[in-house]
Amino acid sequence: MKFSYSSVVTAAIALLPVVSAQVNSSEWNAAYAKAKSTLALLNLSDKVSLATGYCTGNIPTIPAINFTGLCLEDSALGVKDTDYSSAFPAGINVAATFNRTLMRQRGVAMGQEFRGKGVNIQLGPMMNFMRAPASGRAWEGFGGDPYLSGEGAFETITGIQSQGVQAVAKHFIDYEQEHSRMSSSSNVDDRLQHEIYLHPFLRSVQANVAAVMCSYINGTYACENNATLNGLLKYELAFQGCKLNGWFRYDDWTATPSTTSANDGLDMTMPGDIFPGSIVSWFGESLVLAVQLGTVPESRVDDMATRILAGWYLLGQEQGYPPVNFDSKDPLSSVNQHVNVQGDHASLIRTIGAASTVLLKNENNALPLNKPKTIGIIGNDAGPNPLGPNICIAKGCDIGILGMGWGSGTANYPYLITPLDAITNRSSLDGTQVYSSLDDFDLDAAADTASGKDVAFVFITADSGEGSLTVEGNAGDRNNLQAWHSGDALVEKVASVNNNTIVVVNTVGPIVVEAWIDNPNVTGLVWSGLPGEEAGNSLIDILYGAYNPSGRLPYTIGKSIDDYAAQINTSIPIGILEIPYSEGLFIDYRHFDEANITPRYEYGFGLSYTTFSYSDLIVSGSVSGAAPGPSYGFGSSLDPSLHAPVVFVNFTLTNTGNIAGHETPQLYISLPASSQSPPYILKGFDSVFINPGESREVSMELSQYDLSIWNVVTQRWEVPSGTIGVTVGASSRDHRLTGVIG
Ligand code: NOJ
Predict the structure, then answer these.
(1) C-alpha angle with apex 378: 432 to 551, nearest 5 degrees?
(2) Which residues form the signal peptide (predicted)?
(3) Which atom of ligand 1 sits closest to the CA of residue 74?
(4) Ligand 1 atom having least distance to the Cα of 140
(5) pLDDT tens digit string along 181-223?
């Protein structure tokens, strides 16, 4: 993507070699040693074939070196286009758990499934930002804050790669809307790039990610952008102590612009054709020719092949890796062995679904349910798609319970538990009568179903996805932040006849709830997001109190779409669409705080069935004002000294209620005003289980990097001089304890 760099960086990048991976971690060193000795056995065509996929997501075998090829498969939430595999909760849901253990476990379980199907490379996690709240694919990622996104990326990659599967950090970089994604220029300044958009990729590299996928064309094509591919990834992030080293990068599908993008740092092209179905490739024979003509040096091809082989060796895929046993394009193919890779993942999926459900309103102790005699269930989102959960191409429809958005970031459901089925089953334990009306537009039936019931649940949705599909008039990005299918009218109708109306929302991101949220008859609001295959079961765990809610919003719910700092740029330009990221550092809660806008529900907010108190804040350690980080240079942003803990934050949490559960404490820092930073910046979180009446001490650490801003003049991380505030609390606005550093 187009990337405005200061002259200092531009000058530094001009000096960069475009080839030769430099490595210094023991894991990557061993992988590179094997890759380099194997390289000696390859001819030019072999080396180029490593970099070119001739069918979607496949690199061919090279028998001479026992290279069994590479299978690359979507998605970030499960193995796509196969059977007997799981549909995990989306990235945005695992982000809402604010729970690193669950993030890691989800990665491990996905890794097991990809490996079981013989997939070498999982095309995820996705870490682009919910910069504009209507952004079509933001649900694949981890929301509106870099720190949470970075932790989601780190834990997911660590989990996936623990199973010997190569993970892909995508999409590098600045890909935050669908509209014109093939022909837009995200214009991002240097400080912003470092402090927000690069951070999850930095954490990915710290997790030893095997691959990075670049994004779509812009002012400078992302896949031939020397400043970002070579300058940021290869140079600035390349080496950090013993943890990280080389990785290879490949472009997003059909995002390769030229053969010479090899010179700009691109290592692999996928799926291999120039446009869908074309018989030639920018790489393949074109790259062989380019080497023969001297426009691409063979040393660069050596570097590409080495990087690709090194990832294969890094994950130990040269030994005993299961062969591919499914055909994602042909369900009738004899290749399909229908291997069941689900293991016991349903239980983890159910837990993550519950842990990611955010309880936003709970008046009169409406929840948890206490043996109601009658329940009314209203809304299409409570039931099934009558034609089955996988009937719509790439999940591009909003019929029945919404467990994921649409596009390449999806997977087949092995089954999909609906809220209606789950509530009906659970109700039988209490002898509850359940009534339902699933037509979103039949308001009379909705009122009949809700009227006279002890509790009425209204299910509403909002969907989005990849711009390759348009669903109900939404071309990837959402057209607005309203509930789909006149959801507001449905809620208002139900609330007009039932004074214990509880709204359940399955959505890809924020929706505006102002039409009914202050209605006293709306006693509850349960934000269930995109919970995957166990949707109904996860929900009843919350509704009946089997799981005490601990999910927190990974984005702000504003009162109006206009309250957000950034919107989808929907202009139709002649040529390239310019997308200035002019809100700068002030996305999501950072903007609401800076502009003093009261949100409906702030970032990090969520209720529990119990209460927690915070006490005894101790901030120890220090970092000197204006402390400069390492000078700009190779691997400087990953220098271990920058990331070592220097400040320690301890405090005590006490469960002051009667129910055991997790509290989700969050740490925000406030940098000196002179740094022109947002008022509060998330830099720590935890998910802590506490029994009633008990206390737990919580520790969080801050590094110099955590306390720094990117100095665009000196090109290094620097702690701004002045007092740095520390706030610990239950959300981005619920500040319980405050202190200062130093
Ligand atoms: C393009 C999408 O942007 C990317 O996320 C996906 O992994 C590839 N296509 C392969 O489907």
Answers:
(1) 85
(2) 1-21
(3) 7
(4) 5
(5) 888 889 999 999 999 999 999 999 999 999 988 887 656 777 7
